[in-house]
Amino acid sequence: EAGVAQSPRYKIIEKRQSVAFWCNPISGHATLYWYQQILGQGPKLLIQFQNNGVVDDSQLPKDRFSAERLKGVDSTLKIQPAKLEDSAVYLCASSSNPGQPYEQYFGPGTRLTVT
Amino acid sequence: GNSVTQMEGPVTLSEEAFLTINCTYTATGYPSLFWYVQYPGEGLQLLLKATKADDKGSNKGFEATYRKETTSFHLEKGSVQVSDSAVYFCALKLGNEKLTFGTGTRLTIIP
Does the CB of B49 have a partner CB in chain A at under 8 Å? Predict the structure, then answer.
């Protein structure tokens, strides 16, 4: 079974530029999560999708971050415009059962550096 | 709100040493508790879990016991290997709320 795929693995941009990250979850997983992991901190949930609907986006900075999962499969997370404090690893995870968090499978992450 | 406090790293041990990584939590109810591991260049993986008091989670030689009286879930392993070098995250989940992670502990094992 293929794991969660993310791209790119690394991205360097200047502040005020925009950037997009892509995630392809494990086939058949209805729930998709985006996390932000700042250096020295644990992952923080940005947004959770159930199929193509948003379940929780309470910690998503909506003035600059957006995410979509139009067909209920892969997802894109966008930052526009980026700030220095957005430098972090962005993790995507998926699960078949949102009620059982230990079934979350994580991708390798995208490391974003904003200069 | 809910929170997880982990032993600060980095932790460096010699091969075959005994490992303990401390984790305590604060929650308004009785959460499920987890340890995740992140190997270099890889995503987080669930290492073990416990869903109620006195449960012991175990996997790959690692163990952790859910202690309600001390609100703790310390990770232990009797004899570590170089391949255990990774970052370890303690986490909790209460009901339908999201996973709350600790800050992570980097472990390095020296041959």
Answer: yes
Residue among B43, B93, B103 whose CB faces A101 most closely: B93
Separation of alpha carbons A28 and B28, rounded Å: 34
Contacts of A56 in chain B (CB under 8 A): 98
Q: Could you tell me which of A36, A35, A23, A9 has the C-alpha nearest to residue A73?
A: A23
Task: Chain A: give the shortest CA distance to residue B44, in Å.
Answer: 6
Note whether B43 contacts A3, CB cutoff 8 Å: yes
Chain A interface includes B31 (CB < 8 A) = no
pLDDT of residue A1: 64
The CA distance from B26 to A84, in Å, is 31
Of A49, A50, A51, A84, nearest in space to A66 by CA: A49
Q: What is the dihedral of CA A22, A24, A29, A31, to 10 degrees?
A: 0
Q: What is the pLDDT of residues B12-60, one digit of tens each?
A: 999 999 999 999 999 988 899 999 999 988 889 999 999 999 999 999 9
Give the percent of chain A with pLDDT over 70: 94
